[in-house]
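Escalation from tier 1.

The customer reports that the assembly of two entities below gives different structure tokens on two consecutive runs. Tier 1 could not reproduce it. I'm attaching the input and our single run for tier 2 to review.
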Amino acid sequence: MRFSGFRVLKEGLTGNKGWTPHWRDPEPKSEYDIVIIGGGGHGLSTAYYLAKEHGLTNIAVLEKGYIGGGNIGRNTTIVRANYFLQGNSEFYSHSLKLWEGLEEDLNYNVMHSQRGIINLFHSDGQRDAAARRGNMMISQGDDAILLGRDELREMLPYLNYDDLRFPLYGGLYHPRGGTARHDAVAWGYARGADQRGVDLIQNCEVTGIDIENGVVRGVQTSRGAIRAKKVAMVVAGRSGQVAAMAGMRLPIESHVLQAFVTEGLKPCIDHVVTFGMGHFYISQSDKGGLVFGGDLDFYASYAARGNLPTVESVMEAGMALMPMIGKARVLRSWGGIMDMTPDGSPIIDKTGVEGLYLNCGWNYGGFKAVPGSGNVFAHLIATGRYHENATGLRLDRFRTGRGIIDEEGKGSQHNLH
Amino acid sequence: MRITCPHCGERDRREFYYRGAAVDLDRPAPDAGAEAWDNFVYLRENPAGVTRELWYHEGGCGAWIVVTRNTVTHEIQGSQLASEVNA
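Tier 1 run:
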């Protein structure tokens, strides 16, 4: 089934009776060429690009819950390529280019909206840092515009410009940044992978990884054993548990990151606005809700919910920056399980086990990486070589100390990012 | 989440700084080799369930505390002064 304007019109006039399920619900086969553990955004896009770009379709994606039920449905939907360091820059730039062609590619409306992202700054020193970051973004081939206070006020008149602690000096504007409909990204990739023959197997929890003489042979699941020539682990916050099945310990600590959404309002916030000094960022969904969040709770957690001190600090930062949102009522909040690495950057690599591949460590930035991550991971699994835009995301950078990608300059240590 | 300090009793989470897994108490010898140091600095069990962690009572008595905590429920199951654990 292809989506088109004509199809929408026709279905609308004939009672919407012609729509069919977007993907099959197959029984798992006993053997596949490739098994992908994790049916989230990254796992689904990996399967999609394996099928589309490498012609590999004897693939199963195993999801312990349901498609779209993990972090791909629990984020704040921001898409951007405003990184500073080599290793990250070319990767996120690659991912943003894939986003820009994604809807055509998938024949699916993911509501990708390049409304622009503005990172605020509050001092001369921060302005210099923003200019330097903007220059790095431009040298990567992406876009960045340094806004002064007056230009900022013209674009974002609703901010509090007179805050004594954090006066607004301007912002770094990244016009190609924006948001996308998170669920639709999962559904679009799932549909695209399924159409190319990939089996998406839900309610199928992996309980063991079979390894013989250093070579992966398959997986044990709640729906029986499945043999496979290659196995890919793409399970975000659960990476520690899945890697343990392969006898591995990872440089990962899973933390909780909270986010919030208000009742639907008339359009009032046209961009994504980040207030780094207050650990606060916000955008408005197409449905009208203000979607915002802050920093980690800063303790290890798999609870998928956080504590009130973080809620309080996020609300305070929001009120300090834009008092106009004070009358909006918060509808709900949620917590995602973040796979935090010591340097704050991700891992896409082979492992010490032949045929076993690892994709994890997305910290609090996995959503924007969904197309790029699947694309370069599929390249690694299919060819055995690193994609040209993902040579730096190595697992061994921590052990060797070479190639640490410490974007925030905080140091490479757990609990700093 | 309220954390029990052996000196001060049950206190608000905001009084504490979280350091991470209590692996920090088992510092290898300087010449223990790259693998031992990789284990110590970077690699983590990262369990979904009961774990032992180091917290610092920054806004209270200043003690380092080993807290036994469940990462799925946030239940605090016990705490002990780090100085006693390492004694």
